[in-house]
Amino acid sequence: MSGMLGMVNYWAVIVLMMVGFYTLIARGNLVKKLIGLNIFQTAVIMMYVSFGKITGATAPILIQSGDHGGGGAEHVVYSNPIPHVLMLTAIVVGVATLSVGLSLVVRINEAYGTVDEDEINRKDNGL
Amino acid sequence: MDDRVILRVGAKILIPFILIFALYVQFHGDYGPGGGFQAGVIFAAAFVLYALIYGLGNVVRVLPPKAAYVCGALGVSIFVGVGFVTMALGGGFLDYGVLAHDPAHGQHYGILGVELGVLITVFGVMVALFYAFAGRRRIEP
Amino acid sequence: MSENLPALLIVVPLILAPVAALVGRRDLSWAVAAAACWWAFGAALALLRRVQAEGVIRYELGGWAPPIGIEYRVDLASAFVALIVATIGAVTVVYARTSIAQEITEDRAPLFYAAYILCLTGLMGIAITGDVFNVFVFLEISSLSAYALIALGHDRRALTAAYQYLIMGSVGATFIVIGIGLMYVMTGTLNMVDLAERLPAVADNRTIPVAFAFLTVGVTLKLALFPLHLWLPNAYTYAPSAVTAFMASTATKVSVYLLLRFFFTVFGFDFAWVGMELHRVLMPLSVVAILAMSLVAIYQTNVKRLLAFSSVAQIGYMMLGISFGSVLGVTAGILHLFNHALMKGALFMAMGCVMYRVGSVSTDRMAGLGKAMPWTMAAFVLAGLSLIGVPLTVGFVSKWYLVQAALEQGQWAVAGVVMVGSLMALVYIWKVVEVAYFGEPDPDHELREAPLGLLVPTWILVIASFWFGIDATTTAEVATAAAETLLRGLP
Fold it and tell me: Would residue A36 count as lying in a domain?
């Protein structure tokens, strides 16, 4: 784990996060903003999942000593399952956020006839 | 829709397997990767697929929106209900060890109940979400 | 069952929320919601009593010990905040019965009450949990239901306000998750107590300041500290009256509590104040918040919007007290948290009464209301006095502590800012009073006093804001003890 290459997972996360964040800030379309938000959240999920990885470790399923001819079970290294479990929750939260957001956009579209931020502002100020 | 025979037949073949696979993921969750969240989504995917191929009207006849809401609420109640049972038996909230004479069996029963609750909730919510978006008529301004 | 009280406080409302959604009739779902809120109120009160008598309560969920399992950890500060939330929730649910009957259609009312209970559950959960990831989960439970609640407002701008809140709130919550993740990767634990023990050993690593920065930005976004407050005015203005009253007195307060929890319990005073010199950021921002937002409030013509900007200014007072980093300052912050919940709740409820009868809270529609709705406007004036900080009101008590805390550190200019802020509050409250009492009523509209279902909860909060202003010893003692516990850090 040295230099920039050893941190490749963090670079991936940072790039993904910034892509999402930029979309969130720069786009005027409300649906695109939500997509940006979702990419942003996905970057965090990837960050957590990469935390749990231990080099040379196997999936965190308990291997009973009888399963593989016995004896070897004590030497098994498991990946850390806790970040994965946390992200299961975060994914559910992300789905909930996205669906609340989309349902708001659907209703905004019904009320204003547009999903563009500038146009909505124009209609509000023109009232 | 009548001309898309491959889709219709394909879906009919696939849907039972999707449902079985959901149950496999559900019950395999005790021993390996899997569990209520994933199983609930897969179970709901079968209904969504049915709706996409055969239309919303047909799937609503099988599973009315009200039933989906009830599922969403029922699952939460099962989850919390398990917690109440463990508290009534003298343990803490969701302390499965008290559910059976042998704590290891208790853990087993407890996680089964909780995962069942999760399955039902996630399934209900996913289908309800699909209904909410798919069933909304476009209102022109 | 009594040892399960921390879990029951959360779980009983949680199981009642789907029940409220399913019963399908407005009155029945209201009854369920009321049961949930009053249960929460009783449980939170009992919890506070027990913490006062026995000290910190630790509760392991599922019987799993803390590093693996989730732990609820109730100390004085968390029990106090949970009680504030539950009290406001219990009063507002009474108010909601009449107010929601007018504002929300029959078929949506059960969903409203379900979201209301969930929001309450989430906020109380944040207060009593001792696990940082669990904080995020409860934060999202409360926030998601809050977005839905705000979107139920009459005006179509409620939708855009809710959308904006959703975007900014989710970004804030995601920042909090990033901070939590970085702390976890350095320490291997999510439990607040364990984090507090292990963080000092790795505090030199650059990851921890980064985690601290993410958490600070995320939480200040949620609590609407000055430059990150943009979601708040619209959300409060266009939400249904009962929702505004509830959110204004609880949501931001719980976020302030979360900030205290992270800064003092998890990172500790030495890291946050001595190491990161947090006061250099918080104090100027609070001062700007007080002055700028009060000034903006003066120019508003929509009274709900006026009060929303005033809320941002009042959050500035809380953060100002906390930024001193002294026992007196944090006491002032916690006291103002409680006091502001009472008075802002009362003010927004009074505006809800006006909304109920007049259909608008714009100042030009409020002329002559002092005669037409004497009780409503009297409640507004009395709660407004509290906002200004007149002696015998709760507002005076917290400002008294705040000025003392400023003088203790020789910050004369900051004490002056508190005074100027109070004068500005006088200006914007007077603006409403002038219209209501000295304006000529519109002869075409025959207005009556608001119904008792709205007036009684409003007056409960008004009377409470005087009660705790005249006899401030109870709240001041709890707040001081809570501040001392927070500043001492963990044993």
Answer: yes
Domains in chain B: how many in total? 1
Q: Which are the contacts of C463, defined by CB distance < 8 A and separation ≥ 6? A: none
Residues 1-20 of A with CB under 8 A from C: none
The 3-state DSSP class for residue A42 equals: helix
Query: Is residue B115 situated within a structural domain?
Result: yes
Biggest CA–CA distance in chain B, Å, is: 64
Between chain A and chain B, how many beta carbons pairs sit less than 8 Å apart? 17
Closest CA to C309 of C299, C323, C319: C299
DSSP state of A61: -
ipTM: 0.89
Query: What pLDDT is recorded for position B2?
Result: 61
- List chain B residues with CB under 8 Å of C5: none
One-letter amino acid identity for C63?
A: G
The CATH number for A43's domain is 1.10.287.3510
Chains that touch A (3 or more CB pairs under 8 A): B, C
pLDDT tens-digit map of C54-87:
888 888 877 777 767 788 888 888 899 999 999 9
CA-nearest residue to B77 within chain C is C15
Residue A60 lies in a domain: no
In this complex, do C178 and A120 lie within 8 Å of one another by their Cβ atoms?
no
Nearest-Cα residue of chain C relative to residue B94: C62
Of B32, B37, B136, the CB nearest to A92: B37
Whether residue A99 lies within 8 A of chain B, CB to CB, comes out as yes
Residues C245 and C162 sit within 8 Å (Cβ to Cβ): no
Structural domain includes residue A63:
no
**Overall domain count for chain A:** 1
pLDDT in tens, C179-232: 999 999 888 888 888 888 888 888 888 888 999 999 999 999 998 888 888 899
Selecting from A41, A82, A101 the residue whose C-beta is nearest the C-beta of C166 gives A101
* B141–A113 CB contact, under 8 Å: yes
**B29 SS3 class:** coil
Q: Residue B141 and residue A88: Cβ atoms within 8 Å? A: no
* Residue B139 belongs to a domain: no
Share of chain C above pLDDT 90, in %: 44
Residue of B nearest to C111 (CA): B69
> Quick check: C446 pLDDT over 80?
no
Q: For residue C171, what pLDDT is reported?
A: 93
Q: Which domain holds residue B66?
A: 5-134
CA distance C145 to C161: 14
Q: What is the mean pLDDT of each run of 10 residues along chain A (127 residues)?
A: 70 92 91 94 91 78 57 68 86 91 91 87 79
Q: List, for residues C138-151, the tens digit of each pLDDT value.
A: 999 999 999 999 99
Residues of A in contact with C153 (CB under 8 A): none
Is B92 an interface residue toward C (CB < 8 Å)?
A: yes
Task: Name, in order, each residue with C-beta under 8 angstroms of C422's C-beta and a sequence gap of 6 or more.
Answer: C388, C389, C399
Cβ–Cβ gap C133/A89 under 8 Å = yes
Yes or no, beta carbons of B32 and A61 under 8 Å apart: yes
Are C129 and C135 in contact, with CB atoms under 8 Å apart? yes
Residue of A nearest to B136 (CA): A106
Q: Give tens-digit pLDDT for B54-97.
A: 888 888 888 888 899 899 889 988 888 888 888 887 777 777 77
Domain-located, residue A62: no
Domain ranges, residue A9: 5-53+79-125
Q: Is the pLDDT of residue C434 over 70?
A: yes
Q: Looking at the partner chain, which of A30, A41, A48 has a beta carbon nearest the beta carbon of C163?
A: A30
Which of C148, C157, C160 is the closest to A100 by Cβ?
C148
